[in-house]
Design brief:
The structure holds two protein chains of two kinds.
Chain A (H helix, E strand, L loop, with lengths): L1 H8 L3 E5 L4 H12 L5 E4 L6 H12 L7 E4 L2 E4 L1 H9 L3 H8 L5
Parallel strand pairs in A: 1-2
Antiparallel strand pairs in A: 1-3, 3-4
Chain B lengths: L10 H4 L3 H7 L13 H6 L12 H9 L5 H4 L27 H9 L8 H7 L21 H59 L2 H7 L1 H28 L4 H35 L5 H5 L8 H12 L4 H37 L7 H4 L1 H16 L1 H22 L2 H26 L5
The chains are: A alpha+beta, B mainly alpha.
């Protein structure tokens, strides 16, 4: 758990993912489109991946564990949270605030 | 000057009238308003015509009067009856409403017009769309242009032919529309029947059995029911908007429509668990809608693009809000699309891994089973994509509602419904089109 939280705060934008997860791919593409350069952690390529997955599920309140997005050290949530935030116009301000993108 | 100069709008039809048009400023569209034309009124003070709403008898009298500029009377068109030495009739049709009156009105004022029936009987029995304009003329000019006669006769004949063809085309088209309408009613009745049968099945049979085998059918039934209710609400909304209902009244109906939209997204998410491919295929929509289908539904960014021009007037802030909403919808849609592409790619790679040769699969059952298991897992993520796509649609509607005023949202919802109704109507017409 604390590994997840630690990694989640190390950069302005962090995405927990798995290499085979296509929804994670979608989120990565979105951030790329917005000009963000997030830190990406592939759980299936991490030795502690299993535990991190469990931690994320408990943080999110439900599966799937990935993609899980942190901005400015705070857990934003999974795909639908990110999408809703973007459509409501709050995603970009949050990213700017965290220093993940510049004007 | 019998000619084609001065052609205005219906060039070929009125070419004969060109010279006359120029000299007296007469335009076909004004046929109805002749009484307002000072030229005609001033010349007709000595005429009394009772049942002539279009004042056409005055017109013919005026033109026959020597006071009219000489150039008009030498114009070609009115030659149609001159070979009989008759006072030509005025057969003027600016629109389909006015067929026939030329002949009948003429009878009021000129005893000689009854006998000049060769061309006019023809004309009278036909229904012109954008008719023909022929002016009365001074009979003393008849002798001058015999060749002019021939030309205008031919031209008139051509015009008549064109008009006849146009009528036939119109008739065929109307027949096509009628039969399409019949088919449409038939289809609607079938749907109603199927709808009722569907309810019967799901309530009487084993629920689990009917759902699993008929996940698609069950959803189609629910969707049809949802759509019916949606249309009812939209009609209510339209009536309220047209009757200038208060904002409070509008808000109640708008909130109802929005809540009803939430219903369909909920229904779809349940149905996706049973049969995601049915939803993705769009077989529950009409063909034309299916054409524009994106991940099991409409594309929010496209819908907003269509709406923007119909939402005016918008405040600066609203315009920015809507544009941002459109842009972020687009970005989100693109991201999901790329995710879907990655899924397709990944699935293809999974199925293609190992040998595809003749002895491939049977050679190693364990590998085969493992492959299938991985592929099954990937297919399972489709439900998630559909869910996210619906989420985008739902969010778009909610954000739009937040940015716009109640009245603007009402109009937007009406516009959306109108657009999809047209798509559905197009589909019906397409299905019912005559095929040879």
């Amino acid at each position: 758990m604390e590994r997840v939280l630690r990694l989640g705060s190390q950069k302005a934008a962090v995405i927990f993912s798995t290499s085979s997860c296509c929804m994670c791919h979608a989120i990565k593409r979105l951030f790329c489109e917005l000009g963000v350069n997030p830190a990406i952690y592939e759980l299936d390529e991490d030795s502690k991946g299993r535990e991190m997955e469990k931690a994320l599920i408990s943080l999110l309140g439900r599966g799937p564990s990935v993609p899980a997005v942190f901005i400015g050290g705070k857990l934003i949530g999974s795909t639908d949270n990110v999408m809703s935030l973007h459509l409501s116009g709050h995603l970009i301000p949050k990213l700017k605030e965290a220093g993940a993108i510049w004007l | 000057m019998s000619g084609a100069e001065g052609n205005h709008i219906h060039a070929s039809r009125f070419s004969d009238f060109g010279a006359l048009e120029q000299s007296i400023g007469f335009y076909p569209e004004d046929a109805v308003d002749l009484s307002r034309n000072p030229v005609f009124n001033s010349k007709s003070s000595d005429q009394v015509v009772t049942s002539d709403p279009l004042q056409f008898s005055k017109f013919s009298k005026s033109l026959a009067s020597p006071d009219i500029a000489p150039s008009t009377t030498s114009a070609g068109p009115q030659r149609l009856t001159t070979q009989k030495g008759q006072q030509p009739n005025l057969v003027s049709l600016a629109s389909g409403h006015f067929e026939n009156w030329g002949e009948s009105k003429m009878a009021d004022t000129s005893p000689r017009t009854d006998t000049s029936t060769d061309v006019d009987t023809d004309d009278r029995n036909q229904r012109f769309e954008g008719g023909q304009l022929v002016a009365a003329s001074d009979s003393s000019d008849r002798s001058k242009d015999k060749t002019g006669d021939q030309k205008s006769l031919r031209r008139l004949a051509q015009n008549r032919e064109a008009a006849r063809k146009s009528r036939l085309r119109k008739k065929a088209y109307v027949q096509q529309l009628e039969s399409s309408r019949l088919k449409l009613t038939q289809l609607e009745q079938e749907l109603q029947r199927a709808h009722q049968q569907g309810i019967f099945i799901s309530s009487s049979g084993d629920q689990a059995h009917s759902m699993s085998g008929n996940g698609a059918l069950a959803f189609d039934m629910e969707y049809a029911r949802w759509l019916e209710e949606h249309n009812r609400q939209v009609n209510e909304l339209r009536a309220a908007v047209n009757s200038h209902a208060s904002d409070n009244e509008l808000r109640v109906i708008v909130d109802g429509v929005m809540a009803h939209y939430d219903d369909i997204f909920r229904i779809k998410s349940v149905a996706a668990k049973a049969d995601v491919f049915h939803l993705l295929s769009g077989m529950w929509t009409t063909p034309a809608e299916r054409c524009f289908l994106w991940l099991g539904g409409f594309r929010s960014s496209e819908l907003l693009k269509l709406l923007v021009s119909h939402l005016e007037p918008l405040t600066e802030q609203q315009l920015v809000g809507i544009c941002n909403l459109q842009q972020s919808s687009q970005q989100a849609e693109d991201a999901l699309s790329q995710g879907m592409e990655a899924l397709q790619q990944s699935l293809a790679e999974t199925l293609a891994s190992g040998s595809l040769g003749p002895s491939g699969s049977s050679g190693n059952m364990a590998n085969y089973m493992a492959q299938m298991a991985v592929a099954m897992g990937k297919l399972g993520t489709l439900e998630g994509f559909l869910r996210q796509a619906d989420n985008l649609r739902q969010q778009m509607l909610q954000q739009m509602h937040r940015i716009l005023t109640t009245r603007q949202t009402a109009r937007a919802l009406l516009a959306i419904n109108e657009y999809f109704s047209r798509l559905r109507a197009l589909s019906s017409l397409w299905i019912a089109r005559p095929r040879d």
